[in-house]
Amino acid sequence: MTHRLPRIALLATGGTIAGLADDASDLIGYRAAQLGIADLLARMPALDGLATLVPEDIAAIDSKDATPAFWQAVGQRVQAAVDDPDIDAVVLTHGTDTLEETAWYLQLTLRTRKPVVLTGAMRPASAALPDGPQNLADAVRVAADPRAAGRGVLVVMNARILAARRVAKQHTTSIDAFGLRDDAVGAVYDGATRWRDPVPARIPAPPFSVQTPLAPVDIVVGYAGCSTAPIDALVAEGVAGLVWAGTGNGAVPTAVASRLRAAVDAGVVVVRASRSGRGAVTRCAPDDDQPFLHSGDLDPGKSRVLLMLALGAGEPAAALQGHFDALASPRVTP
Questions:
Q1: pTM (2 decimals)?
Q2: In angstroms, rounded to a whole number, what is the distance separating the alpha carbons of residues 253 and 236?
Q3: What digits encode the pLDDT tens for the residues 149-178?
Q4: Which of 13, 52, 93, 96 is catalytic?
Q5: How far is residue 231's CA from residue 82's CA, in Å, rounded to a whole number?
Q6: 112 tagged catalytic
Q7: Is 67 labeled as ligand-binding?
Q8: Backbone torsions φ then ψ of 311, nearest 5 degrees
Q9: Contact 74/92 with Cβ under 8 angstroms?
């Protein structure tokens, strides 16, 4: 009896993994999204009959140019792929600049238990030692592993398997730019996937779908002596929400607080987050916290995506904090 190989939709969107430079030593001045998925496959290590790949180019962009409309288009294509009974998993190639935002959007909207794995590269395909081919091979290996099912959207970079909930780009140029060891849910080495937890933790069902509209939400960053002008300008533009990326515990300077409260009075939802990178934003004293929401341990970028979806879905104001609470990590290290 012939064993059926997993059938994996391999969807490409461009990025550095498909980038080219004029010189193999040039790791910075390359042009992203120059190669199609067929060219990427030709450069990938052999997988020894691990899966049947169904390749498709669905975009060709530098991910710094990704937009909410791009998220929706990608999400709808991925959802269609996982809804296909002949497809067992999806691997999505993506630029690294906004990979974490797309992964989180997909986590919040895709309705499937099938593996969905994103990957990319920190070096262009033209580099003397590109990281893209190995990352892509590792991503396919993870997607083909039955134990990847039910773990939500995953990111595979530099042999680490990272959950969309925690993944973050933490270095500008290093091939080890994504995640910390403590954040990894697994790894790929010796030609095999290794999982930290053999049985995946229960992941809440996504509260939204790829059809959910995305409301206009922006991020305002706090710093010593920061101006309040961006807040007033964004409110005048008609944003539905603002994420305050404050210092420390999402701290709001006195001069800023009055303008953020004025934004709330104008109908704008404001979420306190932190630019610190680690740790949770906790509730402050009631007089200081109101009328703002707090992000828990979601970073400003992920807080924005969640708020865009919640407001786009028409969620009542009383339900908004509940979304952040429900998606907070069960245990946050002090």
A1: 0.95
A2: 21
A3: 999 999 999 999 999 998 999 999 999 999
A4: 96
A5: 40
A6: no
A7: no
A8: -70, -35
A9: yes
